[in-house]
Amino acid sequence: MKCQSFPCIEAVFALTFAWTLISSHAADETLLDTATIEAITGLKGVSNQTEGTFKVSKPRDDVSVTVEQTHMAPFMGLTSWAAFMPFGKDRAMVMGDMVLFEDEVNPVMSAALNGGLEVTALHNHFFFDRPKVYFMHIGGDGPVSKLAQGVRSIFDKEREIRTETPTPADSFGSEQLPARNGIDGGVISQVFGHKGDAKDGMYKVTIGRVVHMAGMDVGNTMGVNTWAAFAGTADDALVVGDFAVLENELQQVLRTLRGANINIVAIHQHMTGESPRMIFLHYYGRGKALDLARGVKAAINTQPLAANN
Length: 309
Fold this sequence. Notes:
This protein is α+β, with helices and mostly antiparallel strands and 309 residues long. The chain has helices at 6-29, 34-41, 102-114, 144-164, 185-192, 250-259, 289-301, 304-307; strands at residues 45-48, 53-59, 66-67, 70-71, 79-86, 91-101, 118-123, 129-130, 133-143, 197-199, 202-208, 211-213, 216-218, 225-232, 237-246, 263-268, 278-287. It starts with 5 loop residues before the first helix and ends with a helix.
């Protein structure tokens, strides 16, 4: 339709002005409160206008790290970071990567989980690094202030640990296991509801799961399983193992294991192309055998499909 009168031109300007206001209001609703992020985390951030993100970083310059006897500066990948992206009005998404030493990983993981964040991966980036460095990936969505506080809790826990012990520890602080293993497999089996395998006083329970790959079912013997192996004695035991979890099961399994004071030592994938996607987490715990078994079983119970296998 052609506009041939002044009133029509006014109408076009009015519509343009209204659209500008609407667009501006919509943009305002998705702007990040960067001042709040900086104030809560205690870190200065950098905006990326193209991606609409805001990223805070913290170099790990409090401990000297060498890789194959060469000093590694924080610039070379030893910098923790958290990036925020708008996720609707007054909400955001956060993703990050935390540089941690071995004695920091599990206390920091608990702080992140208790702070409302998700922990999505835990692994190494180097070989022959001293002290050993791990990288814990985080994520989450929600109110900006809550996410920023979750990130702050990570750095607060780090600082607390390093203030108390400036040099990273090289063990969990447990005593050596008894020289002779004497795990009661019958008691362990009762907890899990599964019969396991015994060897030299040790005991191992394995629970299989199934995924689909290349048009076939792939299960327990191909490595798609959750297992728990026990050594030591009833009063002084060690448990190590692996959980096979669906993506939507991971966070609750982590919370349950940490709630039982069982340490997480890795979170990663073992396969590619499987359906549904399976994440694997490895763990390590010390304590009374029965308490450890109950802690692992409680985590299995958060996985309805796995618990019934």
